[in-house]
Amino acid sequence: MTRFALAAAVGGCLLSSTACSRPAGNVKAASVKAEKDRKPAPDFALKDADGRAVSLSDYKGKVVLLNFWATWCGPCKIEIPWFIEYEQKLRDKGFAVVGVSMDDDGWDAVKPFMKQYGVNYRMLMGNEMVAHQYGGVDALPTTFVIDREGRIASAHVGLVNRREYENDIQALLSTP
After folding, report:
1. What's the burial of 41, exposed, middle or buried (CB within 10 Å: 0-12/13-18/19+)?
2. CATH number assigned to the domain covering 3-173
3. Running DSSP on this structure, what letter comes out for residue 163?
4. Mean pLDDT of all residues in the chain?
5. Rounded to an integer, what distance in angstroms lies between the CA atom of residue 127 and that of residue 101?
6. Whole-angstrom Cα distance, residue 142 to residue 75?
7. Catalytic residues
8. Tens of pLDDT along 6-40?
9. Domain ranges of the chain
10. Which H, E and C letters describe 79-121, residue by residue?
11. Which of 91, 101, 131, 160 keeps 20 to 30 A from 140, CA to CA?
12. What is the DSSP string of 40-76?
């Protein structure tokens, strides 16, 4: 999917408050897949805000919340404060948040946004190749929770209840 098509799909999503989200009342205990059903998360090398190359494999041994997002995405703006809190509270327990911006305007849009929101986690600039590796990333936000072995334990498309993320993260952090 091209960035234009992605923008059109997500833009349409923003016009409808329910198109990109699930009902908040339908929270299950955890959406983490059984270990035997987890597939390896595709590795990538993307640049961070300082121009350094960062790979997903750099985080092996940690539970990672990998969030595809954009500055213009309303549901993304709701989730980002949660992710800031998770990074602050859980980074010493083997957890990391990694944001992958899909903004066409690149760092010109993302750096001021990061400053305004006080983003405390690693932010990377995404591209179509990485989006394709992760199944096309047809909607934003799209978030993957990755276990310590680098396997996708859960995936969330659109805005989900905060408790779903917390349950997934806690389930994976409690597993050695």
Report:
1. buried
2. 3.40.30.10
3. H
4. 87
5. 8
6. 10
7. 76
8. 443 444 444 333 334 333 333 344 589 998 899 99
9. 3-173
10. HHHHHHHHHHHHHHHCEEEEEEECCCCCHHHHHHHHHHHCCCC
11. 91
12. EPPP-EEEBTTS-EEEGGGGTTSEEEEEEE-TT-HHH
Of 100, 110, 5, residue with least CA distance to 45: 100
Q: Report how far residue 125's alpha carbon sits from residue 161's, in angstroms, rounded to the nearest whole number.
A: 25
Lowest mean pLDDT among 22-31, 40-49, 91-100, 124-133: 22-31
Q: Tell how far CA 102 is from the center of its chain.
A: 11
Q: What is the pLDDT of residue 96?
A: 98
The pair of structure tokens assigned to 144 is 């993957």
> Residue written as tokens 């995936």?
155
One-letter amino acid identity for 167? N
Whether residue 75 has pLDDT greater than 60: yes
State pLDDT tens for residues 161-171. 999 999 999 99
